[in-house]
Amino acid sequence: MSHFIVSISKYLFLLLILLYVHASFLFAGQKKKRRQNAVALWQLALIYLFHALAWLVIYVQTRDSMMLLFYASQVLFLTVYQLVFRVFYPDCSRLLLNHLCMLLLTGLILQARLDAPKAWNQFFIAGMSAIATLVVPLVMKYWIRIYKLRWIFGLFGIVALGITFLTAQTEYGAKLSVTIGDISMQLTELVKLSFVFYVAASLQKSTSFKQVAVTTAVAAMHVVVLVGCKDLGGALILFLSYIFMLFAATRNGWYFAAGMGSGAVACTLAYQLFSHVRVRVATWRDPWSDITDSGWQIAQSLFAIGAGGWFGVGLYEGIPGSIPIVLKDFIFAAVCEELGGLFAIGLLLIYMSCLLQFLWTATSMTETFHKIVCFGLACVVGVQLLLNIGGVTKFIPMTGVTLPLISYGGSSVLSTFLLFNVVQGFILMKQNEEKKVEKIKKSENRKSETQRDGRPGNRQPAERRPDARSPKQGQKKADARAED
Q1: In this structure, are residues 218 and 154 in contact, taking their beta carbons and an 8 Å threshold?
Q2: pLDDT tens digits, residue range 55-73?
Q3: Cβ-based neighbours of 8, under 8 Å, separated by 6 or more
Q4: Coil, strand or helix: which one is 170?
Q5: Three-class DSSP labels, 412-465
Q6: N or C: more exposed end of the chain, with fewer CB within 10 A?
Q7: So what's the pLDDT on residue 5?
Q8: Contact yes or no for 227/269 (Cβ under 8 A)
Q9: What is the rounded CA–CA span in Å between residue 72 and residue 58?
Q10: 345 within 8 A of 321, measured Cβ to Cβ
């Protein structure tokens, strides 16, 4: 019976995510708010159905009553978070809110299948992150001059990375996490946001050569410290994001060409200086030559992706645990194996929808700072997706970055909640500006109508007042006087 449920469920998973993705792009085509809300409500119903089906399969396979409690807790979180966010921010992007919940719940499903205790830990951190970041849209909506804190953002990034370099323990060949007591945090996840804010604030002030040089120097300090920590994935995210943000702000092709050229030189130097970089490149080129050692991870990832095919083998029917670091860097391979390649493509389309929403927000903002921040956040997420999925599929060498909201990692969840809510704040700001403009236009229209009538707007024109004489009445009285 359980095998039958799992076999049917993988097709239902695919159907639900395809319907969800279709609703995502249908949402973008709606002009009226009422229709957008109707599509968003349909999306939310699909999230509940997908979530319930997945946890039914998990319970059937484990027969663990704690899994039912875990499911109920997540349903409560989803319901409360959706209601609270929409009550506090009625003009928010329901699409982004749904995407955040869908990706987070998908990650919790996969983590519960792989390691239930860590899934509970991830869920607790997600709940705390949701509460802590609930005020962020309000701050971004009304704190218009936040760009004046650019040096605070820049200093925070350098200090946080310096602390990581000096105190973090080496993990998987890189210094990543800072541990205080029982709490471990990757400060580099928060630095991604402070870095974007610093660059946007600096380029908003001026795009002169002197200002660009200073901004580039501070950005280079971030990247160099990350290289010193051997966190090459984080260094690439900041470097490429900066190059794209600089080009978007200045529209200077020479800056872009110089940046990409210096990046190529830096990659060559890193290859010569760091032995683990040479190992990763050699493994990427030919993982089969050392499949029992350095090539084991990428080989198992490719085996899992191939075994899953288009439709997957079903939850608990694969062996994703054979992939090293599957909860973090290689969770996309687990998605492909058990839920299928088509489901994985559906996840990528959800990420793509998020990026399009970020870019649309960037183009709709009026202030340069807000435009660059939204564009920079889109670059951060886009580059991170490219590095993670490209590494898992052997498209590029593995760099050790997580898949946002899907991979295990509390710091990554917190930074992603912050990122989404910053964009939500800009959307609220834009909605507020449009309402003010519409109000001004209505006021001007009323004034123009009053001036055109030549009398106060509340009074009716003379020919429409009840006591005014009609042309026919006037003609009858004139005829009567003529007869007299």
Answers
A1: yes
A2: 999 999 988 889 999 999 9
A3: none
A4: strand
A5: HHHHHHHHHHHHHHHHHHHHHHHHHHHHHHHHHHHHHHHHHHCCCCCCCCHHHC
A6: C
A7: 82
A8: no
A9: 13
A10: no
Coil vs helix vs strand at 366: coil
From CA 481, how far away is CA 221, in angstroms rounded? 99
DSSP string, 267-293: HHHHHHH-HHHHHHHHHHH-GGGGTTT
Mean pLDDT confidence for 322-350: 92
Residue with tokens 């050392």, as numbered in its chain: 290
Q: Return the DSSP state at 399.
A: -
Residue 426 is encoded by which pair of tokens? 């800009």
Amino acid at residue number 161: L
Q: Is the pLDDT of residue 256 over 70?
A: yes
36: closest CA among 80, 87, 92, 77? 92
In the structure, what pLDDT confidence band is assigned to residue 44 with cuts at 50, 70 and 90? very high
For residue 55, count CB atoms less than 10 angstroms from its CB and return exposed for 0-12, middle for 13-18, buried for 19 or more: buried
State both tokens at 290. Answer: 């050392």
Q: Are 388 and 401 in contact (CB under 8 A)?
A: yes
Decide if 383 contacts 240 (C-beta within 8 A).
yes
Average pLDDT over residues 72-82: 96
User: Distance between CA atoms of 213 and 278, rounded to whole angstroms?
Assistant: 32
CA distances from 4 to 317, 341, 352 (A): 12, 21, 33
Distance, CA of 107 to CA of 188 (rounded, Å): 21
Report the predicted TM-score, pTM, of the whole model to 2 decimal places.
0.88
CB 358 within 8 A of CB 422: no
The Cα–Cα gap between 28 and 355 comes to 13
Query: What is the token pair recorded at 300?
Result: 């198992």
* Confidence tier at 305 by pLDDT (50, 70, 90): very high
CB atoms within 10 A of CB 131: 12
Element (H, E) at 372: helix 368-392
Tell me how far apart the alpha carbons of residues 48 and 311 are, in angstroms, rounded to a whole number.
Answer: 21
Residues 6+ apart with CB under 8 A from 192: 234, 237, 238, 241, 380, 415, 419
CA-CA distance, 337 to 260, in Å (whole number)? 36
Task: Output the pLDDT for position 396.
Answer: 86
Residue type, 247: F
* Average pLDDT of span 167-185: 75
3-state secondary structure of 220: helix
| Bridge pairing between strands 183-185 and 178-180 | antiparallel
Residue 382 tokens read as 């886009």
| Per-residue pLDDT reduced to its tens digit, 117-153 | 999 999 999 999 999 999 999 988 878 788 888 899 9
Which residues are CB-neighbours of 400 under 8 A, at least 6 positions away?
172, 174, 231, 232, 233, 329, 391
